[in-house]
Amino acid sequence: MNCALFAFLLLNFALTGDSVRSIIIFYSYSGNTAEVAKTLAEELGKQGEVDTIRLEAQDESGSFLGQCKRAFFKKKAQIKDTVFDLNAYSLVCLGTPVWAFGMAPALRAYIERSFGLENKSIALFTTFGSGTGNDKCLNEMQAILAQKGAKDFKRFSIQQHNVKDRDFVIEKIEEALRP
Ligand SMILES: Cc1cc2nc3c(=O)[nH]c(=O)nc-3n(C[C@H](O)[C@H](O)[C@H](O)COP(=O)(O)O)c2cc1C
């Protein structure tokens, strides 16, 4: 872990008084976002406890068009009960592939049900293909979370062909989490 990431986590610790405890909640259909989440967990894990939740859509559409339609019209997927209370965490990381210029329905469902986000530090991450809609996706995630009281937002995005390039991903993570 480089100094920037360490400093960010330390600052969080100083501000909240809590031990450095992070959670990564993500959805991944074909594995790209999962790959990035794994690298993020390894990096954050060097400094503190990290919980990871991989969301699954129980009502997933199997077709590209079906997935696009559900994402575009802001449908929420059916997801299993999991940890929705995020009070215990100093850093909350939320990840999704960009689908039809927005987030995947499973992450949308999770964000809607999550609570305990007042004044939390948030790291948003996406993976994408062409990049069309990536900012729109991040902006919407940030706006919904800001309405829930989250304050400090960090963001990073990885193009699908770079997700396995660990050094590249680590650099993006460190750049994003720099205080
Ligand atoms: C249904 C669907 C819609 C997509 N829409 C977009 C899009 O709007 N913009 C974009 O840049 N990439 C888009 N992509 C590409 C994905 O964001 C990209 O492949 C991502 O890395 C997949 O992540 P995953 O493997 O974690 O599911 C789309 C892919 C799918 C399957």
Key phrases:
alpha/beta; Rossmann fold; 5-stranded parallel beta sheet; 5 strands; 40% helix; binds flavin mononucleotide
Tell me about this structure:
The chain is an alpha/beta fold. The chain is built from six helices and five strands. It has a single domain (3-177), classed as 3-Layer(aba) Sandwich (Rossmann fold). Helices cover 40% and strands 21% of the residues. It has a five-stranded parallel beta sheet, with helices on both faces. The site of flavin mononucleotide has 24 residues, from helix 2, helix 3 and strand 4. Residues 28-34, 64, 67-68, 97-101, 127-134, 160 line the site of flavin mononucleotide.
Number of domains: 1
Largest beta-sheet details: 5 strands, parallel
* DSSP summary, beta strand count: 5
User: Spans with pLDDT under 50 lasting ≥5 residues?
Assistant: none
The CATH class is Alpha Beta
Strand order of the largest sheet: 2-1-3-4-5
Share in β-strands: 15-25%
Number of helices: 6
CATH superfamily: Flavodoxin domain
Helix and strand content put the structural class at alpha/beta
What is the CA–CA distance across the termini? Answer: 14 Å
